[in-house]
Every structure is written in structure tokens, then in C-alpha cells.
Design goal:
The protein is α/β, with parallel strands linked by helices and 655 residues long. 36% of the residues lie in helices and 22% in strands. It has four domains: 2-51; 73-234 and 244-393, ANL, N-terminal domain (Rossmann fold), CATH 3.40.50; 419-515, Luciferase, domain 3, CATH 2.30.38; 519-650, GMP Synthetase, Chain A, domain 3 (2-Layer Sandwich), CATH 3.30.300.30. It is globular and about 70 Å long.
């Protein structure tokens, strides 16, 4: 039926566009033109009454096709996002690229500073062609100068999460193959914790400070100040293609420690073009409070470097970005007014935090017209628009390592996008039946996967092709293979396993349902349960740990919870466990709830069973085992009583 309707509307348009000119040779040209126009209009109206989103659906797919063609053209000419940046430096050197606090940086200044960063790397003699350099810092303009500088000398940046510590920090460095680390001055203590290991591995360590007294750590600012700002020779990056890595961005994935997703130059284009299709234009000012080490934060910067007019695929002017070191709900709208922001970027937590701030008369006094992001709940969406004005919200779906994206271009509250025949035809994907207990797709008697019915949650999978590649994770072939599904609908086909459960409603809107495997999302971050469990069992009193995420009313994602068993003869030492997770886990990964059990439920193959524990949640009225919650006020794990539970559910105790 979908194919029939698409063909019908295209046929009616062709009648209107091509038949009338043919009648110019006839005497009754005007009459014929009127007849054809009326017929075409009637057919179109008939289709639209039954399918009101048809024009939007077609427009979206056409825009995606044009985006893909543009990227393919860039691949043929080897025209990268860096080339685009350098073109903008020539055409608009004095236009503002970045606002940060009370500073502003033009395209010309960005070029000069990134030239100095590039030359500092080269003159230090620690970086050669193709070497990865790990960047360990929060949001600040220097992050961009370093990354641009690395691109200019043909090296990828390994963008480390500034919250990681100890074992995770070393792991991320090792899997990227980075031989150089550049860290901000604020993270010097985290670097010192692992400095002996870094020296053992002969990793050169720089700190972003004017001077450094720590042995084995050099000042990078000093090297930049002494370096020339002259342009970098293109010969230094002549080995690059659009399939070369521009960055490594870390993702928790389904199990274990973070994995470094390979972000190629062509994928950077795709990131930036996704922003363009949301409705951002060259007159906008974008406000970015999201971490630059995430693909969503990087998306805003690359989107600012270029803007593609989807109607003509012509490159237009760059877009200024207001960069903030850290999100602040209390200062969010003041910043928007100060910088005349028109576009904001979000994750679900940001929108909820903004809605939870005290109401002000100035709530609608701003110029923001568009919000772009992911993870907003339908109720928060409604509350946000009601309170802060008719701001268009463009929710998108995608994964850093994925080969597919969705966009809610219809403004349907709570949806990720639309499921249409045309979209599926040009960008093959499917929502298939999934066995949560076995942790794998369901297959029929022939061994092939089955698509879900409307309203039924299923696993989103996307076909891997030359036009939609999956580049995987650097130095981790095992995890790369785990994300691939073979023989999904026919022998020899290959699909990317997103690890996300989606559902499609009767009107073909797509909604996020849950994540599968051993990962849950909390505070806008993916948390790998195996990593948290490994940290917990390092404490003297904990013998085993089963980590999972539980739903908390009024909160996005799932809060971390761990069912643990204790060492024989030892009691639960709450203060020690609290101090341990505080030292070794970032705040979003620390278990909010602990459950003390005599033994953990396992399968016949000794795999931990999480389904039952997830269903039971953290309700002390239904669980007889001792329960504790992470009490940040008392800096301890304190008993989770029924009264405390009620206060958490009511939102009186923040977790």
C-alpha cells in the first residue's frame, strides 16, 4: 500500500509538471492545463487525507538521499571537514566561530591557534603520521584547537571522557594506541594516579598549563606559545582519505570497559549534515553545553563549521557556537539571552532540569526557536514547550558507531521519527523480534529473523552496506564482530545491532523502549555493568556483584543498582564501599542502590540473571534483602527504608 501511495503522488506531480507544457502546441492549452492541475490536486488531497505526513516523509527521505550523495561526492574529491573549515577561514576570517565566557574567537583566530597546536606536536617530536593523541579535558576552546591541529597534521584525536579515572583511563589510552596524552590542568591529579603506568608505556604527557612542577609532565601551553602560527603544509595529511579516522569517541557498548568507536572523516560529515537537516541555518547561534568528547557535542562544532542547504546542496556560511564548560540550569536562559542564542542542544536530562527550576517571569523572554537532541520524554516535552514557549523540538536517534539515524521531523511528542516504506527502501533497517532472556534475536524455522507487529517492542537493526558502513571499534575486533548480525533476512546479508529496543505505533511513529544487554543509560551516559561490577568486587567485603539499571519515577534512563554477596565472615562496610566507588567510578556510574544477598541468581552456563532483579527494582516493601542507597549528603551508603523509598519516589530525595 505504501508503494502505491508514493507512486500515486509522484505520478500526480508529474502530470502537473510535465503534461501541461506539451499542450502549448494545442489551441486549448489553458483549458487542458486547468484540467490537469485540478486532477492532480484532487489526487494529492485524497492521498494526504489518508496519509497526512506523506509530504514530510518524502521530503525527509529526499534530504537524506541528498546528504548521502554529498558525502559520496566529498569522498570522491577527498574534501574533508577540515578543508571546509580552511575555506571558511579564507572567506569569512573575522566571523565569530566560538563564544566562551567573555571571550570570542573568529575563524582566523581558530586557524592560528590550531596551527600553533599542530606545530607544538610536531616540534615536540612525539607525534608522527597517523599517530593518535589522547585529549583529556572538558569543554573549552582549547579542545577544538587541539583537535583541529591534529587534523592538520593527519592524526586522529582520542577524545577521552573527562570523568574516567584509574583503570578506565589506562584502558582507553591503550585501546586507542595513543602515545601522547594532553590533559587539562584541572585533571592533573587524575593523571598523577596513573603516571607510573604511563611512563612504563612510554606515553608522552602534556598538561595545559603555563608550567608544571610534576616530573615527567611537560607544559603544552609553553610549547604552543613558542610555536609559529604559519599554515600547516597539506603534504602532512596527504595520506588521508575519507575513510581515515578523524577521531576515536568512546562508548560503553553492551559489556565491559569503554570501546573506542572509529569516527572517519566521512562520518564527521554525516554528523554535521544531521544537524543541518533539523532546520538550523546560517543566521542561527547555537548553545552547546554537552561534552565535546561525545558525538553529540562534536556534532554541534562540526555543524557550525559547515551548513548544507538541503535544497541545492550548496555550502553556506558557518554558524557561531556558544560553548559552555558545564551545563547550569540556573544560568541556561541568562546565557541564551546574553549571546542571542536561537538554537539549543539537549539530552533528556537537560530538559528535565530546566523544567524543574523555579518559574520566572522571564521564562519566555529569549530568542530560542529550535532545540535539537535526544532522550526527551513526552511529558517533559509538553512541560518544556508550555513553560518556555513554542520552541520547535527536533529529537534525533543515532549511535556514535552506528550507520543509521532517525529524526522526528513531525514534532510528535515522545517519538524518535517515522517508519515509512520509502525510508526503509533507501536506508534499509528493521525492528525485529528479540528474546530478552537469551539476549539474542528470535529466528523462525528457516533461521531468519522476524519483524515485530505494530505496538510490539523489538530490536532495531540496520543493514551494513558500502553506502552505510560500520567501521567498528579500534583494536577490538571481537567487540566489532559482536555488533554484527549475519543472515538476518537472507543468507549473506549483514546488519548492525543497535542494542536498542524500539516500537512502532499504528500511525508509524517510532519510540524508544529500552536498551538490551549489560548497559543502561543514566545522566546522559551509557554505563557498562561489567565495569561497575569489576570495581565493586575490589572492596574487601564484596565477593560478587550483579549490576543493572532500575527505573526511578520522574527520572530519565535507569539508576544503577547492584546486588552483591559478601565475603565469608565479613559485614557490609558502607563507608568503605562508598569511598571506593567515589574514587574509582565517575558519578553517573556509581550504583545508587545496593542489595545484599546470600547468593546471586545464575543460569546453567553461570551467567548472572538480571531480569528478575530489574523487575523487583529497589522497593523495600517487596524485597526482604537489606537495601542501601547512595547518600551523598552523608557520604555513605545508608539503609533504604520504606520512608526513604517514598521520599525518593516523590522526588524529595535527589539521587
Amino acid at each position: 500500500m505504501y508503494m502505491f501511495h508514493y507512486l500515486l503522488i509522484l505520478w500526480s506531480c508529474s502530470l502537473h509538471l510535465f503534461i501541461p507544457p506539451l499542450c502549448l502546441q494545442q489551441d486549448s492549452c489553458e483549458t487542458n492545463m486547468l484540467v490537469w492541475t485540478v486532477c492532480a490536486a484532487l489526487i494529492v488531497c485524497g492521498v494526504l487525507l489518508r496519509h497526512p505526513y506523506l509530504f514530510q516523509d518524502v521530503q525527509y527521505v529526499l534530504a537524506k538521499i541528498k546528504r548521502r550523495r554529498f558525502v559520496l561526492k566529498c569522498m570522491q574529491t577527498n574534501y574533508s571537514i577540515l578543508d571546509r573549515f580552511l575555506d571558511l577561514v579564507k572567506t569569512q576570517p573575522q566571523k565569530t566561530l566560538i563564544y566562551f565566557k567573555d571571550e570570542m574567537f573568529t575563524y582566523r583566530e581558530a586557524d592560528v591557534l590550531s596551527n600553533r597546536a599542530a606545530r607544538a606536536f610536531l616540534q615536540a617530536g612525539c607525534v608522527k603520521e597517523g599517530d593518535a593523541v589522547a585529549l583529556f579535558l572538558g569543554n573549552q576552546p582549547m579542545f577544538l584547537w587541539l583537535w583541529l591541529g591534529l587534523l592538520k597534521i593527519g592524526c586522529p584525536g582520542a577524545l577521552l571522557n573527562s570523568n574516567i579515572r584509574s583503570k578506565s583511563l589506562l584502558h582507553c589510552l591503550n585501546c586507542s594506541g595513543a602515545t601522547t596524552l594532553v590533559a587539562s590542568e584541572e585533571l592533573l591529579d587524575a593523571v598523577k594516579e596513573v603516571l607510573p603506568h604511563l611512563h612504563e608505556q612510554q606515553i608522552t604527557v602534556f598538561i595545559l598549563a603555563d608550567r608544571c612542577e610534576t616530573a615527567g609532565v611537560e607544559s603544552f601551553i609553553d610549547k604552543m606559545n613558542q610555536a609559529s602560527s604559519e599554515p600547516i603544509s597539506k603534504e602532512l595529511r596527504s595520506h588521508l582519505t575519507m575513510q581515515s579516522p578523524a577521531a576515536y569517541i568512546y562508548t560503553s557498548g553492551t559489556t565491559g570497559l569503554p570501546k573506542a568507536a572509529v569516527v572517519t572523516y566521512s562520518k564527521v560529515w554525516n554528523f554535521s549534515l544531521l544537524l543541518a537537516t533539523t532546520g538550523v541555518n546560517s543566521k542561527d547561534v547555537i548553545y552547546d553545553t554537552l561534552p565535546l568528547y561525545h558525538s553529540t557535542g562534536l556534532l554541534v562544532f562540526t555543524g557550525a563549521v559547515e551548513r548544507v542547504c538541503c535544497c541545492h546542496l550548496l555550502l553556506c556560511a558557518g554558524i557561531p557556537v556558544v560553548l559552555r564548560s558545564k551545563f547550569s540550569a540556573s544560568q541556561f536562559w541568562d546565557d541564551c539571552r546574553k549571546y542571542n542564542v536561537t538554537v539549543i542542544q539537549y539530552i533528556g536530562e537537560i530538559m528535565r532540569y530546566l523544567c524543574n527550576t523555579p518559574q520566572k517571569l522571564s521564562d519566555k523572554n529569549h530568542k530560542v526557536r529550535l532545540a535539537v537532541g535526544n532522550g526527551i520524554r513526552a511529558d517533559v516535552w509538553w512541560d518544556f514547550v508550555r513553560r518556555f514557549g513554542e520552541i520547535q523540538i527536533r529529537e534525533f536517534y543515532g549511535a556514535t558507531e552506528g550507520n543509521f539515524a532517525l529524526l522526528n521531523y513531525s514534532s510528535k511528542m515522545g517519538a524518535l521519527g517515522r517508519h515509512t516504506f520509502l525510508h526503509k527502501m533507501f536506508f534499509p533497517y528493521a525492528v525485529i523480534k528479540y528474546d530478552a532472556d537469551k539476549g539474542e534475536p528470535l529466528r523462525d524455522s528457516s533461521g531468519f529473523c522476524m519483524e515485530v507487529e505494530k505496538g510490539e517492542p523489538g530490536l532495531l537493526v540496520t543493514e551494513i552496506t558500502a553506502k552505510a558502513p560500520f567501521t567498528g571499534y579500534v583494536t577490538d575486533l571481537n567487540q566489532t564482530e559482536k555488533k554484527k548480525l549475519h543472515n538476518v533476512f537472507k543468507k549473506g546479508d549483514l546488519y548492525f545491532n543497535t542494542g536498542d529496543l524500539l516500537r512502532i505505533d499504528e500511525d508509524n511513529f517510532m519510540y524508544f523502549h529500552d536498551r538490551v544487554g549489560d548497559t543502561f543509560r543514566w545522566k546522559g551516559e551509557n554505563v557498562a555493568t561489567a565495569e561497575v561490577a569489576d570495581i565493586l568486587v575490589l572492596t574487601d567485603c564484596v565477593k560478587e556483584a550483579n549490576v543493572y539499571g532500575v527505573k526511578v519515577p520522574g527520572q530519565e534512563g535507569r539508576a544503577g543498582m547492584a546486588a552483591v554477596t559478601l565475603m565469608d565472615g565479613l559485614k557490609f562496610d558502607s563507608t568503605v564501599v562508598f569511598k571506593h566507588v567515589e574514587d574509582f567510578l565517575p558519578s553517573y556510574a556509581r550504583p545508587r542502590f545496593l542489595r545484599i544477598q546470600r547468593s546471586l541468581d545464575i543460569t546453567g552456563t553461570f551467567k548472572l540473571i538480571k531480569t528478575k532483579a530489574v523487575e523487583q527494582g529497589f522497593n523495600p516493601n517487596e524485597i526482604t534483602d537489606p537495601l542501601y542507597f547512595l547518600n551523598e549528603k552523608e557520604r555513605n551508603y545508608t539503609p533504604l527504608t520504606p520512608d526513604v523509598f517514598d521520599s525518593i519516589v516523590a522526588g524529595n530525595i535527589k539521587i
